[in-house]
Amino acid sequence: MKRPTSGEPWTLLIPKNTGVGGVVGGGQGARGLLNHAVLGYVVNPSNPPPTPPITLAGTPLLFTTDRDGVLVNGVRVVGKEYKFSDGVVYILESPLPIVEATNNNNNKNNKNASPTQTPTQPETSTVTTTRVPPLTHRFKSSRGGGDVRRPDPNTRSSRLASRPVLQPVLGDEPLTLAEADGFQETEFPGETVAGSGSGAPFEELEGSAVPPVREDQPFLQSFLSYMEEGTADEGAEFLHHFKNANITHRFRGTGRYTALVPSDAAFYSYYPIDWGFNPFLVQNFTRDVLADHFIRGNINLADLPSLAELTTLGGKTIKFTRKRNKLLANGVEVTLESEVPLSRGRVYTINQLLFVDNDRVFELQAQYGDLETAPLLGNPWPASQFLSHLLGWTEEEPRTSHFAEYLNLTNLAYLVPGHDENLDPLKYTAFIPTDEAVRGYLYADAPDPFLLDMTLRNHLVLGHLVPGRLYNTHLTSGTTLTSLDNTTLIVTHDKDGEVLVGGARVLGKQTFLYNLGNVFLIDHILGITDQDILKTINKYPSQPFSGSIQEGEKGTIFPQVDAPEPVPAPTTLPPQRPTTTTTTRPTLPHQPLTFPPTPTTSTTTTPPPPSPTSPRIRFETRTEISISRRVNDGALEPLDNSS
């Protein structure tokens, strides 16, 4: 006999091998197989048809997505799809349960019925609430008399595995397993629950005090209208974040939902007062938090049993418990008196945020420190908060003490403003050379050129600041940067993958300087050449040595020159006043230090002039007193008072 065939498009949903037994067995037989076939559709889960397709067994299919992928009636789609010329095959994690369609137009016995027919029912004037199954609790008595022994709370041996419950029905719209996530019949030992019982039917949860509401518009439209009208005592902050979060695509037009709206004070408790970290500036975090305050289904929470678990729009589970006649959602009190019925749903008020705590906020702060508002500093440069905070950062960082000293001597706030002419904030990136990099430009026998010359010092600071906030991901090879002193910096990568900016190696990742900019450490000075250093040293031949250079430091400009053996000076000096004391000292092979005359009652001898090519020698300690000064041999040399 020739078997009947069909030329219509088709979709097959095939469970994995581990779940095939649940299709063939369990009393389903051939109908279980038909429940995984759709005729008339080639379903695309990312763009499902507006009307849920019906399997050959009469089960409506609802395709949804979450963070982990696609679900069909709550069953995960795994693996890749297999496309054919007129159909497609998807692999499921487990079999699909058979759910009867709620509209007689799709009766499977009607052979003339088209799979593409849309079931319709007239709108009613009453609220249709979600049927929530009570959680079944069984008890085990250890002895006669009905005494109940509570098991050890640290063990879970007596807790039975969760299993999906029967399909709740939402009036004219069947609630599929994807939308009934969390409606689970879970058995907990040793606790009595009102309305529980292994054989109790699933009752419709009707609120007697809830007035009828027409379901003539989607829930989302009704919810936003209610919140925007200002009739709600609370929820202004929730509405503000909801409008900016862009999560409206998660709501289905025919879906039913229950909203738990936190009070404004719940948000205020996480807002910084003047400065600090605001976790709701992290967009992904805010979207997840808002979605987790909507429950799938129009549920009258007042009629919930003393223990229930419901699934949020974001995929998390809210555990409802009762304590002292109060309903708690994850330990947060739900104000049942605040219930407001809406089209296809209802709204309740809670006094705290769900799934948000200080530990989570601290994690976000460490990860998104660039969103933290900086405290306002009144000094040293109020007009440039970036420079002011950069100075504090370099002073605290033990590897950048030289740069901190140079920055502290500048006054460049007018070149690094915090806002433009339109009062839009300006961000910056600093590439700070380490102390080791700076010491490579200094040498022991000359003063610090960056302390001597203001022009060179300003050039150093501005040459390491780049407009705009840069991250590691921005430092791609070939990128051209321009510093604030118009120095061009080319980003390159070496063979080891290390990042180089202007030839200087970037040491590690960026450091967030609040929301003002980022800081990188580098191993070389940018934009300063050996000629710049030499030119500056020659401009100030008679300046005293800087106290920031340590004894033994060797520069990169001049070669190290060993000092010749000292030549003894004459042991006597020309006659002076009778009270003058004479001192013998060796001839120094370097340019003597010069100081302005200081009034005193003593005189000094004039040392022989050194050779012009003799290097200067820097000694670690030098003290000055009013009548004499200490030199390298430890002798006291009186100061000249002849003037």
UniProtKB/TrEMBL annotation:
Pfam families: Fasciclin. Residues 103-136, 578-593 have a biased composition (Low complexity). Residues 1-96, 207-354, 387-526 form the FAS1 domain. PROSITE patterns: FAS1. Residues 565-577 have a biased composition (Pro residues). Residues 102-170, 188-211, 558-643 are annotated as: Disordered. This is FAS1 domain-containing protein. It comes from Petrolisthes manimaculis. The lineage of its organism: Eukaryota, Metazoa, Ecdysozoa, Arthropoda, Crustacea.
